[in-house]
Amino acid sequence: MKILVAGGSGFLGRACIARLLADGHEIVAASRRASARPIAGTVALDIDAGQPIDPADVGGCTAIVNLVGIARARPGNDFAHAHVAAARELVALGQTLGVKRFVHVGVIDTSTAHSPYHTTKRAADELIRASALPWTILRPSAVFGPGDQLLTNLVTQVRTAALFPVPRTRGPLALLDVDDVSDAIAAVLHRDVAIGRCYDLVGPARLDVREMVHAVAGALELPTWAPAVPDVLLGAVAWVGEAILERPPLARSQLVMLQRGLAGDGAQATAELGLASRPFSPTRIAALAQQIPPPRMSLRLFPNPAHRRWFTDVRVSSAAVPWALAVMVAMLLLPALVEGLWIRMLAIELVAAPLAVALISMPWGRLAQLRPTMLATGLVGAAFLYIGARAAVAAGQPFAITAQLALVYEAMTAIPSAYAMILLPIVVVAEDITFRVAITTLLARRTGPVAASLMSGAAFAIAHLTAGPPILVLAALVLGTIWSALFIRTRSLVAVVTMHLGFDALVLWGPRLG
Ligand SMILES: NC(=O)c1ccc[n+]([C@@H]2O[C@H](COP(=O)([O-])OP(=O)(O)OC[C@H]3O[C@@H](n4cnc5c(N)ncnc54)[C@H](OP(=O)(O)O)[C@@H]3O)[C@@H](O)[C@H]2O)c1
After folding, report:
1. Ligand 1, from 70, 120, 139, 201: best to mutate by most atoms within 8 Å of Cβ?
2. Ligand 1, closest atom to CA 83?
3. 47 C-beta closer than 6 A to ligand 1
4. Contact, 117 vs 108, CB < 8 A?
5. Pairing relation of β-strands 197-201 and 63-66?
6. pTM: predicted TM-score of the whole model, two decimal places
């Protein structure tokens, strides 16, 4: 059969053409984008630019498959054009050619939705039903597959952050594999029973968007929090995204579908077209995710499962936990025995750090590799921390923190600057080996990365309880958490030491914090 596939350059179009070619059909694809032309025999079709298909270009076609559609209106291509005008154009062409099959792909459950997407889809369905062509309407639910928007956006967002806001109103989506849509189109072309019929195409699973996020997060082994946020907020995000982005992660029409759900009754398609829908299984999700390029930047502390395994696979001596507890107890007791801050820090850290290296089997050489990106990360981080600390001190003025800061400065400047310049790097490296690398790793092996960072920061703060005023304990909590998180993310001692050392140096020798 020679078949015209309109919308052949799209997601469904590419899958459908591959399937029809494999079945031995001859294909003419109609598309606007020359660069996306999937096969040699492509003809130009741009409904909006008033570029109809010349019947002479598609002579001999005995079937038309209409996959033209848009998810959001753009200047020059609104819903009425892409859905209604395209369908009208193709119906007229079908009549001219005298086609034996006209397969139109609409969308499931347009009966009550009032978005421009749905009303124009409904109008197109009516136009086709009213035609004298041997038509079949296929109404898929949300479709996933290679090169789709749905799974690509889900996977990219899950890889980018552990937070995925979902709308408060959520309907079930009967997620459908693109291969099932191709099967349906292929079946319709040779089954007479399909003429004049309208089929819902649904997958076996009915998941709302939050369940979908969890299914994807589970398949990718990337735990994700999907809190429900007010619908109006996501509506605003979709509106702004459409206004400023070329490919917004969520269009308003798609938000309506997530809220209403996309489910229907696939029984007739199963019975008459012989469809057996493929599941939205973890294996299929993981396989499709492999084809999706990683995001440019991930805010996750464990950006992928391999990163997590790097921590869980670390070999740790059974003496490591007692060692960590002993370090904290020593830090708590020593201020009562030894007065000078510097001598205390040196005494503890120079014993604790070599023991950490002995007890925890890490690639210590790689952690200490001097990489320019890690140095830059540390330096930029130190500058941000210092600016943040100045702002925090300014905000803390009403709580009389100046006197507490003076005590900290007094302890830190108790030795001549020249000595401090030699001792500071030694203390910082030893402290970061002890707390940021060793203790953080012990925690990250057992908990998630955020909990490990917080607990490591808390351990650092507890160890400082007897070392100085409350402001010192608070600083240990906040900075300890940040530096631990930085280590988990970068697995670089250099980044952490640079940020820590840079910050301490700015505090000691830069303009005083308060
Ligand atoms: N994907 C889903 O989950 C899903 C679910 C239910 C229903 N559907 C429906 O299935 C159809 C195909 O969806 P899809 O996901 O494959 O969409 P897609 O990837 O965006 O592809 C849409 C196709 O329509 C063409 N097109 C758009 N505006 C046009 C215009 N003014 N003139 C001529 N061609 C135009 C595009 O051509 P260019 O390449 O030249 O832009 C492209 O080939 C749509 O009707 C859609 O509503 C899709």
Report:
1. 70
2. 45
3. yes
4. no
5. unpaired
6. 0.86
Rounded mean pLDDT for each run of 10 residues along the chain, 514 residues in total? 91 94 90 57 63 80 95 86 92 95 90 84 96 97 94 95 95 95 96 96 94 98 96 94 87 88 92 92 97 95 95 96 96 91 90 96 95 97 96 84 89 92 95 97 94 97 93 96 98 98 96 85
Count Cβ atoms within 10 A of the Cβ of residue 107 and give its class: 0-12 exposed, 13-18 middle, 19 or more buried: buried
Helix, coil or strand: residue 452: helix
- Tell me how far apart the alpha carbons of residues 366 and 492 are, in angstroms, rounded to a whole number: 8
| Token pair of 112 as six digits | 């009550």
Q: Where in the chain is the domain with CATH 3.40.50.720?
A: 2-290
How many of the other CB atoms lie within 10 Å of CB of 413? Answer: 13
| Helix, strand, coil content of the chain in percent (nearest 5) | 60, 10, 30
67 Cβ inside 6 Å of ligand 1: yes
Residue pair 481/471 in contact (Cβ under 8 Å)? The answer is no
CA of residue 129 to ligand 1 center, whole Å:
20
Ranges of H-type helices in 368-492:
372-395, 402-412, 417-431, 440-444, 449-463, 470-490
393 CB near ligand 1 (under 6 Å): no
Residue 346 beta carbon below 6 angstroms from any ligand 1 atom: no
Distance from Cα 285 to the centre of ligand 1, integer Å:
22
CATH no. of 2-290: 3.40.50.720
